[in-house]
Amino acid sequence: MGVLDKAALVLSALETGPTTLAGLVSSTGLARPTAHRLAVALEHHRLVGRDLQGRFVLGPRLTELAAAAGEDRLLATAGPILARLRDITGESAQLFRRQGDIRVCAAVAERPSGLRDTIPVGSQLTMTAGSAAQVLLAWDEPDKLQRGLNSSAFSAVALATVRRRGWAQSVAEREPGVASVSAPVRAPSGKVLAAVSVSGPIERLTRQPGRLHAPAVMAAAERLSEVLRRTGASE
């Protein structure tokens, strides 16, 4: 059996959850030194990690690779959906993805004229303010969510509201004079992969922008989520 086959056995064994070295040996049939050597090598490449008890778990690199695969499908179809959202709302529309402690604008459909919130593709924005940041954080694991709330402009209560109603709004939270509305794009598993947003001046969106645009933003996010469901995109 080749090294890649053995490495695949180790990763497959970790699908069920945290596993000790003895558990890896039992589930893979590999010799203890071989299982240990492969697990440590995979850990070096972040394909395997450790939990607080020192057990082996699937590593963060797998999530990053899966997200990149999902992003390709998202970006292939985001343009027309964002353009339609822009036309329905009359405001600039964006797609944001989280990368660690920042969020990145992955696609955009700008309002063609007049006062608008311009966010170029590739822009890196904070995860501590704005409706897209709320959406990208609201469904995170409890410990990560709590860390994300440190020095954020929104509260745990606000994120609970986001989870309950399925969308977020912000008014002058990220930038003075700007309001926005965002909703989650989900993988077939339900994991939040991205946030669809519309943003513009408070004078047009008002101090309750969700009342104006939440239905359209949620519909656009659902259309993108449906694309991922049809194509079987993973987390």
From TrEMBL:
<dbReference type="Pfam" id="PF09339">
    <property type="entry name" value="HTH_IclR"/>
</dbReference>
<dbReference type="GO" id="GO:0003700">
    <property type="term" value="F:DNA-binding transcription factor activity"/>
</dbReference>
<dbReference type="Pfam" id="PF01614">
    <property type="entry name" value="IclR_C"/>
</dbReference>
<dbReference type="InterPro" id="IPR005471">
    <property type="entry name" value="Tscrpt_reg_IclR_N"/>
</dbReference>
<dbReference type="InterPro" id="IPR036388">
    <property type="entry name" value="WH-like_DNA-bd_sf"/>
</dbReference>
<dbReference type="InterPro" id="IPR029016">
    <property type="entry name" value="GAF-like_dom_sf"/>
</dbReference>
<dbReference type="InterPro" id="IPR036390">
    <property type="entry name" value="WH_DNA-bd_sf"/>
</dbReference>
<feature type="domain" description="IclR-ED">
    <location>
        <begin position="61"/>
        <end position="230"/>
    </location>
</feature>
<feature type="domain" description="HTH iclR-type">
    <location>
        <begin position="1"/>
        <end position="60"/>
    </location>
</feature>
<keyword id="KW-0805">Transcription regulation</keyword>
<dbReference type="InterPro" id="IPR050707">
    <property type="entry name" value="HTH_MetabolicPath_Reg"/>
</dbReference>
<keyword id="KW-0804">Transcription</keyword>
<dbReference type="GO" id="GO:0045892">
    <property type="term" value="P:negative regulation of DNA-templated transcription"/>
</dbReference>
<dbReference type="GO" id="GO:0003677">
    <property type="term" value="F:DNA binding"/>
</dbReference>
<keyword id="KW-0238">DNA-binding</keyword>
<protein>
    <submittedName>
        <fullName>Transcriptional regulator, IclR family</fullName>
    </submittedName>
</protein>
<dbReference type="InterPro" id="IPR014757">
    <property type="entry name" value="Tscrpt_reg_IclR_C"/>
</dbReference>
